[in-house]
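Priority: medium. Attachment 1 of 2:
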């Protein structure tokens, strides 16, 4: 009998280089900050004017948006593209600071944001409605203990997690009155600690956990790996723990004690003193989070009575020439598909 091919390799050596860091290693709480210049702002004005003269639908393909961005914002487009791709090999996060959100109408903000995402990579759908841009705000539907609620729809604190695309882009339009700060930790540093403290659990992380789909797509639950080592690169996708905890409601299969321990350990390592950086996003900040190499969290927040309320805009973007890995590591990397009854 011919021996079978070996399964996926498990990385048994620590990750080295800039992607494995502690908070004290960062030059600023935000990691890398690029302050927009007056020349950059002149370019954003040129893009907004172009959109007023010839509107472009947000759901249009990437090509027209990228072409418009390159034509009207050449310098800012170069900065956005290089910053996005550097997150793959550097610390996994950066902030473009100073986008003129206070001076623009809501549709103009979304147009500028869509254009910047288009020069960074290909946006993917975040829900079964095919939306490229999602509002991160209080939807008034309660917390994550309700299985119909997703993380971006609540004021609750969000545990450390990954999103689906290579990059999660968060544009702060209005910060919260209180709370809502971002926390980011290196998933590569967490892996190194798991390798040191609990190497016997690595196979469990590579095999993954069962997540509830939160009524966004069929089937109602799916298995997803936390780590994968492909083509010499370690990649992480640690989705919201709440979706594992609620999965028995649709699978009738309980989460085992060992699985709970592994999830608790991952989060404890992300939360240990000195591991994560924390900061508040300002209006006009565009935060880049590389889901391949870092995990992020959010403090709970509250809004002032009668105010507009905290509003962030989110895109999931896949980088050009991005790393290769199978859907077992990220089922929704290329977007969520419509349910059969929602297809035209």
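Attachment 2 of 2:
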């Amino acid at each position: 009998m011919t021996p079978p091919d070996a399964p996926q390799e498990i990385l048994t050596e620590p990750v080295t280089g800039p992607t494995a860091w502690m908070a004290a290693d960062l030059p600023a709480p935000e990691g890398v900050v690029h302050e927009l210049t007056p020349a950059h702002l002149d370019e954003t004005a040129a893009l907004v004017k172009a959109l007023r003269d010839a509107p472009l639908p947000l759901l249009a393909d990437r090509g027209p948006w990228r072409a418009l961005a390159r034509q009207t914002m050449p310098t800012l487009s170069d900065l956005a593209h290089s910053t996005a791709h550097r997150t793959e090999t550097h610390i996994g996060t950066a902030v473009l600071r100073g986008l003129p959100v206070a001076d623009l109408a809501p549709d103009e903000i979304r147009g500028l944001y869509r254009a910047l995402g288009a020069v960074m990579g290909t946006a993917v759908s975040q829900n079964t409605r095919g939306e490229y841009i999602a509002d991160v705000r209080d939807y008034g539907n309660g917390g994550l203990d309700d299985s119909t609620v997703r993380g971006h729809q609540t004021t609750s604190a969000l545990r450390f997690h990954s999103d689906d695309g290579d990059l999660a882009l968060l544009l702060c339009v209005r910060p919260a009155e209180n709370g809502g700060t971002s926390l980011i930790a290196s998933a590569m540093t967490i892996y190194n600690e798991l390798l040191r403290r609990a190497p016997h659990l690595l196979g469990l992380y590579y095999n993954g956990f069962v997540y509830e789909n939160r009524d966004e797509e069929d089937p109602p639950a799916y298995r997803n790996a936390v780590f994968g080592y492909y083509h010499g690169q370690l990649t992480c996708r640690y989705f919201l723990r709440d979706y594992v905890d609620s999965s028995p409601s649709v699978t009738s299969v309980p989460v085992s004690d060992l699985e709970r321990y592994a999830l608790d350990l991952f989060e404890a390592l992300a939360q240990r003193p000195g591991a994560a950086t924390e900061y508040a996003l300002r209006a006009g900040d565009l935060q880049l989070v590389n889901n391949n190499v870092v995990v992020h969290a959010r403090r709970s927040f509250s809004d002032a009575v009668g105010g507009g309320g905290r509003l962030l805009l989110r895109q999931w973007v896949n980088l050009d020439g991005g790393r290769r890995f199978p859907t077992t590591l990220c089922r929704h990397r290329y977007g969520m598909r419509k349910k059969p009854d929602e297809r035209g």
